[in-house]
Design goal:
2 domains; Dihydrodipicolinate Reductase, domain 2; alpha/beta; Rossmann fold; 6-stranded parallel sheet
């Protein structure tokens, strides 16, 4: 099968990881170019990938590639994805796909009738825990409550965007992926602590069937936590995404006489799995594992959250 000729756009923190995954898939991917506009990044790219062309603009290699990975700042995603689609290139875009609903509607129009793959990098969907739990979550008897905490000490990255676009988008997307009860309204408030953008957000998502989700994200925490809990009349399930563990407490004892069951699941290379799925979709002409609709719905959830924070009033959700 013909290899997919690819370029990676952006050689920052995450771009370097994407370049490594391209090289790890040499059997299906032909690494053509790294597009990086900053001289220091270009120098590092040449040093780490001597056999790969390094250029400052995608136009220099557009005719030489079949697909591209967009790993640049969020503010650039829309224009780059649009340009690549207009040139009939398959695209893998790191989350978020774009900055807001307005840009999303324009991408939807551009992508119409294009025979290419558009995959969005919502990597949190690839935890093995969800393979074990998603079916159960989809069949929970409502009402139930979901609590998600994703907080970490300040790391100095992604400060060009707020914490909702940077972190909460993972969890807002997981709500759409894991549960059949769809969000209907979002209320939120936050704090600007270290930057001029929101650095902390507390989000309440009202869902169908009187279910709700409480999402807390922050990038100025005293410790790092990544945890999802689901509470219903049947008990409680907690997933520690840091420790790769699942804890379950039901209304009765387990077979060993305990009240809490603990299970460990395997850690995965989410980025590698995303790459493998992207190449497979291109080569087999199959839909992306996380496609345009998924990406646009996540952007809409972010848009609603930011509006709720700015307006200080709940905002209705209207998913596509």
């Amino acid at each position: 099968m013909k290899k997919v000729r690819v370029a990676v756009l952006g050689y920052g923190h995450l771009g370097k990881w994407h370049c490594q995954k391209v090289e790890a898939n040499k059997d299906v991917a032909d690494f053509v170019a790294i597009v990086e506009k900053f001289p220091a990044g270009q120098e590092a790219a040449r040093a780490n990938h001597p056999g790969v062309k390094v250029v400052s603009d995608i136009s220099e290699v557009m005719s030489e590639i079949d697909a591209a990975f967009v790993v640049t700042p969020t503010s650039t995603h829309f224009e780059l994805v649009k340009l690549l689609l207009e040139n009939n290139k398959s695209v893998f875009c790191e989350k978020p796909l774009c900055s807001n609903d307005n840009e999303g509607s324009k991408l939807l129009e551009v992508a119409k009738n294009k025979n290419v793959v558009l995959q969005v990098g919502h990597s949190e969907r690839f935890h093995e825990a969800w393979e074990k739990l998603r079916g159960r979550f989809q069949n929970l008897t409502p009402p139930f409550t979901v609590r998600i905490n994703r907080v970490a000490p300040f790391k100095g990255r992604a400060t060009d965007v707020d914490v909702v676009q940077d972190l909460a988008i993972h969890d807002l997307d997981l709500l759409l992926y894991l549960f059949k009860q769809k969000p209907v309204q979002v209320a939120a408030h936050g704090y600007k602590i270290r930057t001029t953008n929101w650095d902390h957000a507390s989000i309440t998502v009202s869902m169908e069937d009187k279910c709700e989700a409480l999402v807390v994200v922050g990038r100025n925490s005293s410790k790092e936590v990544r945890e999802l809990e689901v509470i219903s009349k049947d008990g409680m399930i907690t997933v520690d995404l840091f420790a790769n563990k699942i804890y379950e407490a039901t209304s009765s004892k387990f077979e060993d006489g305990t009240f809490v069951k603990e299970e460990t699941y395997a850690k995965r290379d989410h980025l590698l799995l995303e790459h493998q799925n992207f190449y497979r979709s291109i080569q087999t002409s199959q839909p992306a594992i996380i496609g345009l609709k998924d990406g646009l719905n996540a952007v809409h959830m972010v848009d609603c959250t930011l509006k709720a924070m700015d307006l200080k009033t709940p905002v209705q959700v209207k998913l596509g």
